[in-house]
Amino acid sequence: MDFQVVVLAGGTSKNLIPLVSKEVPKALLPVANRPVLSYVLEHLEQSNLKDLIVVVEGQEAAALVGNWISGAYVDRLHVEVAAVPEDVGTAGSLRAIAHHLTAKDIMVVSGDLVSDVPPGAVAAAHRRHDAVVTAMLSSAPVSGPSESGSSTGKDKTKKPGRYNIIGLDPTRQFLLYIATGAEVEKDIRIQKSILRAVGQMEIRADLMDAHLYAFKRSVLQEVLDQKDTFHSLKQDVLPYLVRSQLKSEVLLNGAPQAEENGNQKVNSQSNQVTLSGILANASTPSFHQLSGLGTNGSTRRTHKCCVYIADNSKYCLRLNSIQAFSDINRDVIGEASRLSGYSFSPQNNIIHPSAELGLKTTVGPHCMLGEGSQMGDKCSVKRSVIGRHCRIGSNVKVANSVIMNHVTIGDGCSIQGSVICSNVQLQERVNLKDCQVGAGFVVTAGSDCKGEALAKKEK
Fold first, then answer.
1. Taking a C-beta distance cutoff of 8 angstroms, is the pair 109, 118 a contact?
2. Which CATH class, in words, describes the domain spanning 3-318?
3. What integer pLDDT is reported at residue 433 of this predicted model?
4. Is the preceding peptide bond at 365 cis, omega within 30 degrees of 0?
5. Residue 63 and residue 67: Cα distance in Å, rounded?
6. Model confidence band, residue 298 (pLDDT cutoffs 50, 70, 90)
7. Residues 6+ apart with CB under 8 A from 297
8. Where is the Nucleotidyl transferase domain (predicted)?
9. DSSP codes, 67-108
10. Contact 399/415 with Cβ under 8 angstroms?
11. With a threshold of 0.85, does the pTM exceed it?
């Protein structure tokens, strides 16, 4: 498809602490005992996109990710791993590698995207419309957007989700308006007068930006060069392109063009009137079919922002919160097992041939037990992933949890709705509910923890 593909793999994401660490950057967090980045790389490989730049924040994280890729994908993919400074954001990451980008079109994929939506469909829509950007949208997860950062089931009902407000044209091919969740919670207000003026624009709050974009490289690089304060593709670059698209259309009707400023909010009365005019004109049937000529006959530069809306039958979720980490692990060994790449047993689970089970120990459907792990007698595992080389005592109950590699669990422990990182030791009779335990931590015998994050202090 002659698209250059950039995978933004992040670094040690703050909202995934204590799951991430210097030893385990975000890209290597396990989903069904495979690094989350493997789902992205193999999905691209299946689409015959094998020439990739993987961007990682931080030199140490980039070295770990690079070592893993060179071992796992030798002779399969051509991957260049580029280290960028931490906290530069998605726009800053692309700015840092701009000199590597040479193709006419660039596909940018988040390294935490677990999906079976074909990237080729997004690329085809982008080419069909000759768009400057095409964003993939998918249905927001039922439990609410995972950006809210909630980590337990109860939180999901308490916290208001951060929804994206998205405006589409009647054909649902063009992106006319976008406000991200953070803006919606703060001070974006769409007044009734504006909504009346919009006409046929369809407002949607049930879609999420999947962080898979196709960009026209020349326009992307121009924006990154001119707007050096832009930090985020989703919150800065995409809304800017959408706003400037609409304003270029409204100029045909003689309306004034306001000066763009990256994070400026549409607050003032004059701006709201302008927005009203923009949206009214944007929603007319002739949107993007208007003449590209200015009033004096000179050629005007206009651009199109498009969307590709994933079919509801497809799976699409980002591992960008602790809640999402648990959800994706559960789904990939459950309803979305087609993404896992594993063969399931007649009991609809995955138990490695080298794993050992004690007497009267049950591993239910939608569970996974990794290589070399051992379980004692009278244990119960439900809807959980257990990693490699774990040592689990007797009378242990595990439900709706993820246990990583080399974890030791004493007799009589109960683990529910929790994430246990590698090399953790749980002593006897520990009860954990909705907890996260960071790598190498020791939980003392008899501890009873609920909704806590337990981790060693960073040195």
1. no
2. alpha beta
3. 97
4. no
5. 6
6. very low
7. none
8. 5-149
9. HHHHHHSTTT-EEEEEEE-TT-HHHHHHHHTGGG--SSEEEE
10. yes
11. no
